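Example record

Each entry pairs one chain with its bound ligand, zinc ion.
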Amino acid sequence: MEKFKFEIKKTCKQSGARIGELTTPHGVIETPVFMPVGTLATVKALSPEEVKAAGAQIILSNAYHLYMRPGHELVARAGGLHTFMAWDRPILTDSGGFQVFSLAGLRKIGDDGVRFHSHLDGSAHFITPEKSMEIQNALGADIIMAFDECSEYGADYATAAAAVRRTLDWLDRCKKAHGNPAQMLFPIVQGNMYKDLRLLSLKESAARAGAGIAVGGLSVGEPKEIMYEMLDHMRPHMPEDKARYLMGVGSPDCIIEGVSRGIDMFDCVLPTRVARNGTAMTWRGKLVIRNNEYAEDFRPIDENCGCYACRHFSRAYIRHLINVNEIMGGRLLSLHNISFLIELTERIKDAIREDRLLDFAREHGDIY
Ligand SMILES: [Zn+2]
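Structure tokens for the complex follow.
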């Protein structure tokens, strides 16, 4: 059996959105899929059992953070990331490119790689495409990402164009250095908000891609309309037969709009981050459970949600936990928010099967 393949099972006649199956060594992922983020080898505050119960098919982890702590070699000695964190379903690791480039003032980019100082202790590091592959090979995720350069939002054309060329050059180096056939490498499309650069990057990346391709450098500060415009522009040139992953995007409205534009995979720290701040995601938009108005609201967060939090606890109770800084409050909201985003992808799949995804988007305008 092929270790990796992507097959489209159904295309929505109304929107062109797809239901697909991405086969990996740790199982088949049905797309569209939301991937909870476990940056440091844990989806914050939740056990793997709970993340599975929420319906997660795959989680995302971060090569840069695990390289810094506890070190990729230690994870390899532990038997790889799956064993280390006791997660037996697929894992995707981000290359670390985005995190390194976010270290403004601490880093220096050259054609060979990126020199930077640790955000933790100031120690000097040098990450190259080859090093990123070494780290991700050691971690052992099913899907690994090419080491790319994400130019800043607002960067001028020449800077964005140079980042696209460098990203393609680095992709070739990643492909050469990547030695583990049990891991699939996704190229990353860059190009900032310049349409011709997006197309150049897309075409060159697609020619070098296996079963999947990622779109990076969006949702980096631009208005959502511009992100949608970029997706619309790239869409006719997107390879049909590859899983398409929109990196770092995962708010409910962006998932609906993204799938409608042919995207298959999403990830975002949002559900767990806002949970720890006392916010629940619902079909009627955000519910700031911390607020006074829920002090005596004994209904669940969402009456139609089947998650553990909604089956057992009231808004008033969860609000109380958040207000007294009990860990359980953030845990219950994290569980609900991840369950909600995964339930959203399930309903999106139903709408695709019924050829009515654009109607679905209109019906759920409250989510936006
Ligand atoms: Zn719930």
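The mean pLDDT is 96.
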